[in-house]
Design goal:
The complex is a heterodimer of chains A (371) and B (369). With 371 residues, chain A is an alpha/beta fold. Chain A is 67% helix and 9% strand. Chain B starts with a helix and ends with a helix. The chains are: A alpha/beta (371), B alpha/beta (369). At the A-B interface, α2, α5, β4, α6 and β5 of A face α2, β4, α6, β5 and α12 of B.
Amino acid sequence: MKLQRLRGLIRKEFIQIWRDPSAIAIAFVMPVFLLFLFGYGVSLDARHVPVAVVVDQPSAETSAFIGGLQQSAYFTPQIYGSIQAARQAVMTRRADGILWLRGDFSRQVLQGDTTSIGVFVNGKDANNARILQGYLQGVWQGWLQQRAASAGAALVIPVTGQDRIWFNPALRSRNYLVPGLIAVIMTLIGALLTALVVAREWERGTMEALMASPVTMGEILLGKLIPYFFLGMGGMLLSVALAVWLFAVPLVGSFWVLLLCSSLFLLAALGMGLLISSAAHNQFVAGQIAIIVTFLPAFILSGFIFDIQSMPTAIQVITHIVAARYFVTILQTLFLAGDVWPVILWNSLALALMATFFLGVTLRRSRKRLD
Amino acid sequence: MLARLWALVIKEFLALLRDKKSRFVLIGPPLIQLLVFGYAATFDLNHIPYAVYNQDSGFASRELLGRFQGSPAFQQVAIITHNAQIAPLINNQKVLLVLQIGPNFTRDLLLHHPASVQVIIDGRNSNSATLALNYVNSVILSFDTHWAATHHWGKPPAQLVVRSWFNPNLLSRWFIVPGIVALLTLVVTLLVTGLSVAREREQGTFDQLLVTPLNPLEILLGKALPGFIIGALEGVFIILAGVFWFQVPFIGSILALALGMALFLLAAIGIGLMISSLAVTQQQGLLGVFLFLVPAIILSGFATPIANMPELVQDLTYINPMRYFLVIVRGVFLEGDGFHELWSQYWPLALIALSSMTAAAWLFRHRMQ
């Protein structure tokens, strides 16, 4: 391997990037586009959920209960005259659930009997329904506490849970989705960058010209890897900047650790792209494969949005070969929890192994052959 | 005219199914996606790993913890005895939450004083944290009800009785699988129609097509029909898989779903043909399909609710055909919807179909000269 030849190759690659800005577009425009789309489009924070409220006989007791609902930012209560009307509202999707204070609510509460408050949620969107149930339970507990406090009586709930939420006290879903997104996006972009440029070299026949020159296959691969590594890191830094300044996600961990882990991950992603291009010698097929093998697995199997531990065991095993899985964990930890070394080191090791594997296999598979 | 059209449709099918690679694209990825999405895409939590830090030696805390051990949603992985042990367990993601019970738990309860359980939870994944807290609360609630009844506590003035309609056990699979019907129908239809004209242009056979007696409208119809047939077949296949393999209930009207699917397919074909007539090469066609698909899926309510998006983005979803079809397919599967309930979804979908088809026809004619 000669440094001078390598330098020549890298120079050539940069000139090519400069002339045909499609690589720059992939590295810088695509992450911004995807980050905006997902950052604003994907959110699991239910706010102002429309809830149909039916009060058969309004009284001081019922308005105390409804008051708790109105104060909460989670709900937009809508009053309906009858349970049939409320049911109709749920059926026509104008409300997500019903809270029903039956006719004898006040009488029974005052007599000291236990009355029941009817809650119906539309379970179609199970996740949303669960969150709604939790919120309503909170309103109910708040009401019980308030009643006990104002009556000077002891609380009638024996045990209550006191939540202490670490790392993300407001449970803002954007704080964990945006770091995960960076991992998903960079998987796609890293693989796409190298897969397309090497395939282009084959398609245009310039690979033949390179092979006829004295450069070795290792030099050719390095000559591709180094320029696109810098380009990819540029896109990466842009994404991190957007996450911190635009989406206001706190970066608790150290920036340098983030930089180091990102380099490891990018090597794995670029290596995957190189491997794809050594199998597919035209841009169309290479691009298609890159999208299929990176984007979807990174989206679904990385723990970015769906919890890995809840998946069936067979699928959990498969997630171990998804590079994004490790990077999602690293990024979520670095952004929200800080430099937690055991998490960072083990996942970095996995990334390093994957990078070595992809680059090693590519080097072995690549021969100076034209078929 | 029908005979000519028929011949063109047959030719399109032959071109699509002739080589191995494009046959695979139509069958392989949708099947894999169906299985992966169906099994992996779930918001339900099970086996939540937790640790116990119990400073109380009484029977009440044991009874409460027993309820956690007995629940399939939780899995106890550690018992700790010091405060300092909490942070490493949570930081290193060994556990999602730690239950901490103070030293006077049983004594307080026996004296009829309220007691509390500290729930220290990892908030890195806020959705899992929210759901896990809900699970914890419901276990505590059932303990409370039992304890209050057996230890002569005053009855609470009101009890919350929660019932969920349409999906009593709140399985997220029932929500995701009908969504996949919409997702894969859209992907397949767009791939078939989005690349069809570009492929002819690239191979130079488009000129040959133009010198045949077929008029432009017939050519367009000949391109649209295969997309419709293949999209419908895949859609039906996934619906059957959803009902028989994933066991999602189907309680609505089949005809109402069929009408929705037909309108959705027309809208998708219109968009596919628009992309197709603009693209000169297959690569551009693929790029166009990708650029349309990703936003269409994200901004449809497939994985996360539209109501959670910023208002401006919510307005944008009104031009997304998948948004309407998702309501239709989920409504028919789970809520038992018929024509009457879905009318508000049909007409926007028809409008999108009509305008995209018109635009495609105009572009097609325009780009030929």
